[in-house]
Amino acid sequence: MTTSIDAQYDQYLSAGLALDLTRGKPCSDQLDLSCALEDMIAGNFKTVDGTDARNYGGLLGIPEARALGGTLLDVDPKYIMAGGNSSLTLMYQFLVWRLRTWQENDPMQTFKFICVVPGYDRHFTICEHLGIEMISVGFDADGPNMTKIEALVRQDQNIKGIWCVPKHSNPTGHTYSQATVERLANLPNLAGKDFILMWDNAYAAHDLDPRTMPLTNLMARAQAAQTAHQVALFASTSKITFAGAGLAFCGLSEPMLQGFETFLTPQMIGFDKVNQLRHARLLKDSNDIAKHMAAHRVILEPKFQRVQEKLMPLAEADLATWSKPGGGYFVSLDLKAASATQVIALANAAGVKLTPAGATFPYGRDPEDKNIRIAPSFPDMIELDQALDVLVCCIVKASEMDR
Ligand SMILES: Cc1ncc(COP(=O)(O)O)c(C=O)c1O
Questions:
Q1: 326 in the same domain as 252
Q2: What is the pLDDT of residues 256-271, one digit of tens each?
Q3: What pLDDT is recorded for position 212?
């Protein structure tokens, strides 16, 4: 017998939809907020210290771009490298450098990383690519399950690091509490001397709710815990200005920064300093950043609100729970049944692309097959409405097929 949900699904199947909720990309209205970048040079290529930004050199970045990175990561600019357009590249290169040291110290070992799940798929891809084994640990309300993490690093010295997205975590939206940040700052004291905390603060300035809890400063806590050489901070302007043409930043203690600069030197003479200059002139200080992010919020907040409204029938039918993030780019949806693969296949067939099932877990395997990551920033409101209607329909349909 055909149910009303089957009939609704069949309508979507024949509607020829082509919608996409996969990647957390800014929409074109958001990109338009930064068009003034184009006017920031106007023939003046001199940086504050008199350097001609067009020329070679300055691998750590120009002073005003390092200051921008320092503002985003809440550290002194002397700890900052301002790079090119991708913080992922800096993370990857940083781990290649660390891996070399681990291998020198322990050539026969397999190295491992703790991955907080659900998490950012590209972090997991970096580990896979570098042959680093991944161990999943889940979240508590305050952030990662610290008791489990502390026990793991005490037991196994081959665990060389952990991935953290400490604010508006991708995809759950967690912001780590002060107590969690303090325990993380102390973690290298429990682990081996080569342990590194990868602190990807990609959403440092991306509050949807301006009353969002501020993030405790990891570098300051690490200095107090004497672990500052074992934390690596990252951020970028990818979701502030142009996602494909922004700036990335790395924050390290001074000796680590020097070491990383030496490691990168054979690869390049310097990053794109003209783009650094453009960005530093557009975003001169924390007030500029706050104003700019408030304009993003005007575009993003209604989309995140719409996700909450559209998913509501799933709560009433007890089919799913989901996050209500205070910022960032994602909503994390957990189905009650182990049917994420089936739901995503149904949605794909109806013309709505969703992030593949399992993508938020190491090796692309969600052990419970329940998590779906929703990225509402890119589609317009009409497309978002349609895509969410299809998603809800597919979840209900999958629950009926299960019976
Ligand atoms: C947590 C996180 N880190 C990094 C990135 C990508 O950063 P970038 O564009 O600077 O490489 C993303 C993009 O979605 C992200 O969600």
A1: no
A2: 999 999 999 999 999 9
A3: 83
CA 9 from chain center: how many Å? 33
Q: How many residues does the chain have?
A: 403
Atom number in ligand 1 closest to CA 169: 1
Q: How far apart are CA 397 and CA 156, in angstroms?
A: 44
Pocket-testing residue among 30, 162, 200, ligand 1, by greatest number of atoms within 8 A of Cβ: 200
208 in any annotated domain: yes
Q: What percentage of the chain exceeds 90 in pLDDT?
A: 95
Whether residues 312 and 388 fall in one domain: yes
Domain boundary (235, 261, 284) is at 284
In a domain, 30, yes or no: no
> Closest ligand 1 atom to the C-alpha of 330?
16
CA–CA distance, 105 with 155 (Å, rounded to integer): 19
CB-ligand 1 contact for 377 (6 Å cutoff): no
Report the CATH number that the domain containing residue 338 is assigned in CATH: 3.90.1150.10
pLDDT of residue 401: 86
Arithmetic mean of pLDDT over the chain: 96
Give the total number of structural domains in the chain: 2
pLDDT at 210: 77
Q: How far apart are CA 302 and CA 304, in angstroms?
A: 6
Please give the DSSP secondary-structure letter assigned to residue 321. Answer: E
Measure 315 CA to ligand 1 centroid, in angstroms.
30
Element (H, E) at 133: strand 133-137
Q: Is residue 161 within 8 Å of residue 231, measured between CB atoms?
A: no
Q: Is residue 232 part of a domain?
A: yes
CATH number of the CATH domain containing 51 = 3.40.640.10
Residues 10 and 129 in one domain: no
- Tens-place pLDDT, residues 83-131: 999 999 999 999 999 999 999 999 888 999 999 999 999 999 999 999 9
Ranges of the chain with pLDDT below 50: none
258 lies in the same domain as 388: no
pLDDT reported for residue 192: 85
pLDDT at residue 2 in the model: 59
236 CB within 6 A, ligand 1: yes
Could you list the residue range(s) of the whole structural domain that residue 265 is in? 42-284
- Taking CA atoms only, the protein residue closest to ligand 1 atom 12 is 202
- CA 105 – ligand 1 centroid, Å: 31
Cβ 237 under 6 angstroms from ligand 1: no
The alpha carbon torsion through 186, 79, 143, 118 (nearest 10 deg) reads: -120
